[in-house]
Amino acid sequence: MSATITPTSSSSKIMISLVLNYCCQSTTYGAYFKRGTTIIGVPATAGSRQSVTSGLGYTVDYNQHLQGKIEYLDSPATTSATTYQLFVINDNTTDIAINRGAVGSGDADNASSKRSISTITLMEIGA
Questions:
Q1: Range of the domain at 78
Q2: What are the residue ranges of helices labelled H in 22-119?
Q3: Who contacts 113 (Cβ-Cβ below 8 Å, separation ≥6)?
Q4: Percent of the chain beyond pLDDT 90?
Q5: Are 124 and 6 within 8 A, CB to CB?
Q6: Which end of the chain is more exposed for a tag (fewer CB within 10 A), N or C?
Q7: For 52-95, what is each residue's pLDDT tens digit?
Q8: Domain count, the chain
Q9: How far is CA 86 from CA 10, 16, 71, 105, in A?
Q10: What is the pTM of this model?
Q11: Which CATH number do you get for residue 80?
């Protein structure tokens, strides 16, 4: 997921608001943003711990969705078009499904499977 904004002033801040509907199995995930190629909104690294903006839980029911919400206020210091992109990581090789049930039995065509939407909104503050 990504979105682009062109600030009107280099002193503006950008509020990133994300609502992520997802399903995953057997592990927890973490999410963070990149502004262009720069990772933003994460703490300093500490040993082998993953540095993320937000942790994301899991459910063992492949048909159920979880919702992660993240807000972050960035200071890009530019008037150029700026792209923010969401990245999701985990500690093994299991998949995460965004806007649908999990890989495997979760995206079946039946009444218990779900489809949803996720949104990323960028808002310029204080031009």
A1: 2-125
A2: none
A3: 63, 100, 101, 106, 107
A4: 39
A5: no
A6: C
A7: 777 777 776 767 777 888 899 999 999 999 999 998 887 776 77
A8: 1
A9: 23, 10, 12, 26
A10: 0.84
A11: 2.60.120.1340
